[in-house]
Design brief:
It is built from 6 helices and 2 strands. The chain has 143 residues and is mainly α. The chain has a two-stranded antiparallel ribbon. The longest helix is centred in the middle third of the chain and has 21 residues.
Length: 143
C-alpha cells in the first residue's frame, strides 16, 4: 500500500467530512471566502467538488487506480494553491469549519499538499515513504 496515497486520501476525507455537514451552504461559503467567480458559486458546483474529493480519496485507496487518484489529488492540490494565492489576505476554511486568513502559512500547507500528491503519484513505499507521508500529514494539519 502506498503510504502517501493513504495519507492524501485521509486529508481529502477530512476536508469533505467537514463540509458535508452543512452542504451545500458550507461549500458555497468556502467558495465565497476564496473569492471564486460568482458563476461557480452554485450548489451543483459545491456538490461536484465534494464528489471530486470523495472519489479522489476512494481512487487513492484502490490499488489498481491509485495513480489516477494521485493525479486527481495533484490537480485538486494545484487548484487549491492557485485559489489561495489569488485570494491571499482573504479567508479559507481549508480543513476546518472556521475561516482563517490566507497567509504564507496556509500557502505553505498548499505546497506541502502538492508534495504529498507527488509522492503518492511516484508510489514511494517502504520506510521512507511512510516517514515522509506521516511527517507531511502532521505538518499539513498543524499549519
Amino acid at each position: 500500500m502506498n503510504p502517501a496515497a493513504i495519507t492524501l486520501a485521509l486529508i481529502f476525507l477530512i476536508a469533505a467530512g467537514r463540509k458535508l455537514r452543512g452542504m451545500p451552504t458550507s461549500m458555497l461559503r468556502a467558495f465565497a471566502d476564496l473569492r471564486m467567480p460568482v458563476s461557480l458559486q452554485r450548489p451543483a458546483a459545491a456538490w461536484a467538488h465534494l464528489a471530486w474529493q470523495v472519489l479522489t480519496a476512494a481512487a487513492l485507496l484502490i490499488g489498481p487506480i491509485t495513480k489516477i487518484g494521485a493525479a486527481s489529488g495533484l490537480i485538486l492540490a494545484l487548484l487549491y494553491l492557485a485559489l489561495m494565492a489569488r485570494a491571499k489576505g482573504g479567508k479559507c476554511r481549508c480543513l476546518s469549519d472556521r475561516a482563517r486568513t490566507i497567509d504564507a502559512q496556509l500557502i505553505l500547507r498548499g505546497v506541502l499538499l502538492i508534495a504529498l500528491a507527488l509522492i503518492a503519484f511516484a508510489a514511494m513505499a517502504g520506510p521512507i515513504g511512510w516517514v515522509a507521508s506521516i511527517g507531511l500529514f502532521a505538518v499539513i494539519l498543524l499549519l
